[in-house]
Design goal:
alpha+beta; 8-stranded mixed beta sheet; 5-stranded mixed beta sheet; 7 helices; 15 strands; about 30% helix
């Protein structure tokens, strides 16, 4: 971190992030299979469980206790305005439908913005015992081991993840884009969760994309992908705008996480 940042020293900060993710993961795994879900009034493609609410409440409390002057955004509990330049962005469970059905492909995410710039983030994949953390200029780590993406070879040899929610205005566009990408890669995968993005950070997938995300879906993986050596952008290839983050909770972001040598090839398709 630079001397101008208001974040705590790196080691203590990443330790705190890891502790948040560990607690969230333990809580998620403590809920029984066959969890009841409720469809959100604002979006029939989104669901919420008691676990989402409980984890979000706990993480918010932990952050406020440690950093009482920071702002917070939580997918389920809304926003808290603080006086500092820091905003914590929490997604208690990403892939809630997977989680509720008993699939292991879900995650807990915490991202950090400073003056609207992504500076740190963490993701836990509880069922897989994987914890990813990263801070700007300090690298990205999986269970303590540094992540470093290498050149991936030909696109035709790669797996690509494409997540979809069925929105009438975009479904046809998604199908066309997916078909175009599928014709150029080895195969399409779809968990519709943060699992796909973390497979890019590990070098398993060449890219992961989704056309409809919110700020809590983006901030944590943004830092992890970039610090692992990848590229993170909108599907048009632009840098996501997180400025004035408390006003961005209803904004829809497209998201592309990509190995660096495939970013141009993928955005040539996705921006059309």
């Amino acid at each position: 971190m630079t001397s101008t940042t208001s974040l705590p020293p790196l080691q203590g900060y990443l330790t705190f992030l890891e502790s948040l993710l560990r607690e969230g993961a333990e809580m998620a795994l403590s809920f029984p299979r066959g969890r009841s879900v409720r469809i959100k009034d604002a979006d029939p493609n989104q669901v919420v469980t008691d676990a989402d609410l409980a984890i979000g409440k706990k993480l918010k409390s932990r952050i406020h206790e440690r950093f009482p002057h920071d702002s917070q955004i939580d997918e389920e509990w809304g926003t808290v305005r603080g006086s500092s330049a820091i905003t914590w962005v929490i997604d208690p469970i990403d892939g809630t439908s997977n989680f509720a059905a008993g699939s292991p492909l879900f995650g807990v995410m915490v991202g950090v913005l400073e003056h609207g710039r992504p500076v740190a983030g963490g993701v836990s994949l509880p069922a897989l015992s994987e914890t990813y953390v990263a801070a700007v200029g300090q690298g990205a780590y999986l269970n303590g081991s540094k992540l470093e993406l290498k050149a991936g070879g030909a696109m035709a040899e790669q797996l690509v993840a494409y997540g979809m929610d069925f929105h009438p205005s975009e479904t046809a566009l998604d199908y066309r884009t997916m078909e175009s990408i599928a014709s150029r890669c080895q195969g399409i995968r779809m968990s519709n969760s943060i699992f796909d993005c973390m497979m890019v950070a590990k070098g398993v997938y060449a890219a992961s994309m989704h056309r409809r995300n919110r700020i809590w879906d983006c901030v944590a993986p943004h830092v992890i992908i970039q610090e692992s050596g990848g590229a993170f952008s909108t599907m048009e290839g632009d840098v996501p705008d997180y400025r004035n983050p408390l006003t961005k909770t209803t904004q829809v972001y497209s998201m592309l996480a990509c190995a660096p040598d495939f970013h141009r090839a993928v955005t040539d398709i996705t921006r059309t």
